[in-house]
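hiii so my PI (J.) wants the whole complex modelled not just the main chain, which honestly fair. so below is everything: four entries, each one labled with what it is. i double checked the lines twice but i was tired so who knows lol
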Amino acid sequence: MANPLIRKLEQFSLLSPEDQRVLEQATARQIRRFGPREDLMSEGDEPGEVTVVLSGWVSRYKHLEDGRSAILAFLLPGDLCNPNISVLREMDHSVGALTPVTVAEISQPLFEDLTLNHPRISQALWREALVSAAIQREWTISLSQRTAYERLSHLLCELFFRLRTIGATRGRSCDLPVTQAKLAEATGLTLVHLNRTLQELRAANLVLLKSRILTIPNLEALMTAALFNPNYLHLGCAANPPERTAAAQLRNPDDLRVARDHRASSALDPTDL
Amino acid sequence: MANPLIRKLEQFSLLSPEDQRVLEQATARQIRRFGPREDLMSEGDEPGEVTVVLSGWVSRYKHLEDGRSAILAFLLPGDLCNPNISVLREMDHSVGALTPVTVAEISQPLFEDLTLNHPRISQALWREALVSAAIQREWTISLSQRTAYERLSHLLCELFFRLRTIGATRGRSCDLPVTQAKLAEATGLTLVHLNRTLQELRAANLVLLKSRILTIPNLEALMTAALFNPNYLHLGCAANPPERTAAAQLRNPDDLRVARDHRASSALDPTDL
DNA sequence: CGTCAGGTTGATGCCATTCAACTTAGGTGG
DNA sequence: CCACCTAAGTTGAATGGCATCAACCTGACG
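here's the output for the full assembly
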């Protein structure tokens, strides 16, 4: 099994064997494990090591004063929990394990070495950060504009695409090791309404979800239902137009044709200028 | 009038006179103007210069395929529209002027010089980027968990704090040069409901908004109504706990006390600026 | 066999949307 | 100076999506 961080970063930059060796070492030095519902870090914490998810699912979340709380992001293997935290004084949100989790901790100096002395790694980390920001924006749109039905579809599309990037899908299926309650927190719906929306998706035969395994019989149809346009994930981003990378597989024409057509037909309102 | 970028970055790092000189030059080389509703850049655009807002209000926004659209962020003087865009292949959203706008364009090489050869500028830019991300997360929470009333209050709090940082407030007032329609797009509400929510805030005497001028008679009360906790703005972030920086002033209890004293009496005190 | 977490279902009500009309303020031209 | 126009703001009434409250079901597990 490939190192998840390497697999992730390869999507963004063509890493040399040396780059890969360095990353392999950096993620092997200090390993920690967490159980479900344990926090990896909390709001108010001061910067420590940079934490990389190696296995399991993690959530970024935040509490409101009165008890409400929201999931802000799902972090999957290969994702960084707190890149560049060192430049801020404290965490403004928390990060918690959703499943049993393994993480690698990279010390500040070592992380700086990665970013300063390995340009391709540095570039890949940059891109990773920008894609994270783009995902956050897309969540903003979902919450702002999409209906419950579209929101849930969109989230499932996003997760499926991201999991496929790191080789965590099997054909049309993947693990979805979270409860409906967590999906509700992430979509801004109540548990009850999420459950009903999920049932609508099942009834439309867009989604099978059972025993924590998600199957998407027809990804194109789900993408259409979600108004999902994967451009924000910046998948074909590696330096060269690649033939063999994970990113290339993701751009399998079959998957994206629908999305492209949508874009072509979405005209900007000319009166807007 | 100080350079808005310098004023903004000073919040995050103690800039040397040399740093300031360099920034002054970088933002003076190429100036462009845009009228309201003009786009500074559009989804799909390839990376060009780094764009800094010098005056006016700008929005980050994104369209859905079917015509819906959402504002993802307000960019104020001193904010960067597309930092580090160079590492991605294309914009995944658009940026448009809300008012008449002046921007400075910084070429890629020049921007790289800023980040590579001026460590304090580089650090400040980093912090700026992380605070932007934190703001985006906070918007996610607003949309996910807060009611219309809280959402609007929260947005107004945020804008007031950010404007104060760049010296664009006058006592308890500031310009709010956007229509209710734009506020609705940013809060994920319909125009009609935003209008009603605004009237609720007016009735509660938490907000005066007339002729594009916002007055907050009692900031503490508004913050309470919004569940607003300014920690995500990372205001006291400059290297030292400073006495004289904008950030320090923001945390000055006096500002809040004044707000408590008089109510509607001195609506607009045309002091500084 | 009891317990508990996760999932499902029904009944009810409210917050926000939708549709539609009206008002107000600025600007422009006759 | 008024007639007209348009963008922005305001108001009313009806509808509906989603929340809320409260059960109930299911399977895993000690």
